[in-house]
Write a structure and sequence with these properties.
Rhopdopsin 7-helix transmembrane proteins; about 300 residues; disordered N terminus; single chain; mainly alpha
Length: about 300
């Protein structure tokens, strides 16, 4: 049944993280700092890979691609959030909102399978070390990256088209800091059960499917590590995957909570906080997690700075 006061929507109003005016400047300062540090950190990883000959391997190729993805990912939401925090003009056009949703879903879905590809890389490095160079050649690496982007593009297109072909009600206020699926669906005048079913099925397939692929790699990795006789050998083998495993837990935990659940459990205030974790904090932490736990990256960073 359609809601009352339906109208043609040309733009939306993003309410942001908080509607309290006293917090706007503080939030702007905090998230500007986070954004700058995140971009600089991820750019540093890309430069280290580009200009360090000893890091031209599959693992660092994936890490550089993940860093590029994270720059795009955080840039799809934070600049607009900063603009609505600093000014009274909090609107976003209908097509601007659709584009933001598409880009965000594209990058988020791509990251799911990028992390799965990185887990597969670690699986081959630890379980098949003698064949690693042959298996993880340039063609394989590029194919896995392209496959991740293709899955992300299809997933984002389906959700964006289904969402923005709905009719929206008179209220245009999105209770979020960007155009995510749940808060936009909340404004629809039409029955959104089909959208909710599609979200649950496709997001479950993308998130849970890539997570299972990642976990299959790690089950085999752990089994192989446990069969290594020396303690130092087990420690060295496991240290090569702990950074990636931390990123996997952080990203999948928050993304699963956000999308793979019924609409009845939505809480916009809580969801905004969860969204900050995977849309803003994760891209900030990733370069530090990888660089601080990797001696090769730390040495390369020092050389690059000097």
């Amino acid at each position: 049944m359609e809601k009352e006061n339906s109208t043609t929507t040309n733009e939306f109003i993003l309410l942001g993280l908080s509607e309290t005016s006293d917090l706007q400047l503080l939030l702007f300062t905090v998230f500007l700092f986070i954004y700058v540090i995140s971009v600089l950190g991820n750019v540093s990883i890309i430069l280290v890979f580009r200009y360090s000959a000893n890091l031209h391997s599959a693992m660092y190729f994936y890490l550089a691609n993940l860093s590029f993805l994270e720059i795009c990912y955080i840039s799809s939401t934070v600049p607009k959030m900063l603009s609505i925090l600093l000014t009274e003009h909090k609107t976003i056009s209908f097509y601007g909102c659709a584009m933001q949703m598409y880009c965000f879903l594209l990058l988020g879905s791509t990251e799911c399978y990028m992390l799965a590809a990185m887990a597969y890389d670690r699986y081959n490095a630890i379980c098949h070390p003698l064949l690693y160079g042959a298996i993880m050649n340039k063609r394989t690496c590029v194919s896995l990256i392209c496959g991740a982007w293709l899955i992300g593009a299809v997933n984002a297109l389906i959700h964006t088209v289904l969402t923005f072909t709905l009719q929206f009600c008179g209220t245009r206020k999105i209770k979020h800091f960007f155009c995510d699926i749940p808060p936009v669906l909340d404004l629809a005048c039409m029955d959104t059960r089909i959208n909710e079913i599609v979200i649950y099925i496709i997001c479950s397939s993308v998130i849970v499917g890539s997570f299972l692929l990642t976990m299959i790699s790690y089950v085999n990795i752990i089994a192989t590590i446990l069969n290594i006789s020396s303690v130092s050998g087990r420690k060295k083998a496991f240290s090569t995957c702990t950074s990636h495993l931390i990123v996997v837990i952080l990203f999948y935990g928050s993304a699963t909570f956000m999308y793979v659940r019924p609409k009845s459990s939505y809480s916009m205030d809580r969801d905004r906080f969860i969204a900050v974790m995977y849309a803003v904090i994760a891209p900030l932490l990733n370069p530090f997690i990888y660089s601080l736990r990797n001696n090769d990256v730390k040495i390369a960073l020092c050389r690059l700075v000097k």
